[in-house]
Amino acid sequence: MAGLPQQMMSGFKLDLGPLKEPLGFIRVLEWVFSIFAFATTAGYTGSTGFNVKCKQESLPVVAHFGYPFRLPSYGYEFPNCTNPDVPEKMLLQNDYSSSAEFFVSIGVLGFLYCTITLVLYLGYQHVYRETSRGPVIDLVLTAAFTFMWLVSSSAWGKGLTDVKWMTNPVNLIDTVCKNDECNSGQFPAMGRLNASVISGFLNLILWGGNCWFIYKETPFHKPINPPVSVEDGTEQ
């Protein structure tokens, strides 16, 4: 076991040629967009708010929220007109963390898999192509990631729609205000989250398209050995 790292390093042969081929170039794009997908989602923080009319005075109410969008864990203070010194403690409603965390998990796993395969493509291409096992495993895992990008992007797209609805000041007012005493304030900026959903479906296209180029490396697309002519015994 102690000699394994040394054997791996001795077998390392850097070759940037695969980056010029669709197999390697698309893998780099997958690596970039996987980072973009989980980074735009996991690093998000935002706020929503409205104004409360209390004794001829308009008081702002601001509620902060962020990833993983477990909204009941985010509270805000609602003005108490009868006793301004003791505001009411309110919470945002509904938990959308499952779809967000699932999407981020697929992004992180996709990034790690791209990193491993790029090292294999660029440093151990001779190992990757010497048997059919490498391309076949690569094809199966890439197809699995394609399906998971479809599921996670769809789930997060629906989850984001629900987050937008629940944090919309107009809808928030309907749940906490009475007798037209409130008016909408700042709307949360969701451009970053919209980009995360778009990047998720771009990953779906990239990973699905790359399946074809990996498939061409497997024996399912071409025979392992070239056919031999029956008449003269020469290779065709």
Automatic annotation (TrEMBL):
Organism: Synaphobranchus kaupii
Residues of the MARVEL domain: 18-219
Superkingdom, taxonomy of origin: Eukaryota
Cellular component, GO annotation: synaptic vesicle membrane
Transmembrane segments: 102-124, 136-156, 193-215
Keywords attached to this entry: Glycoprotein, Membrane, Transmembrane, Transmembrane helix
PANTHER family: SYNAPTOPHYSIN, SYNAPTOPHYSIN-LIKE PROTEIN 1
Protein name in UniProt: MARVEL domain-containing protein
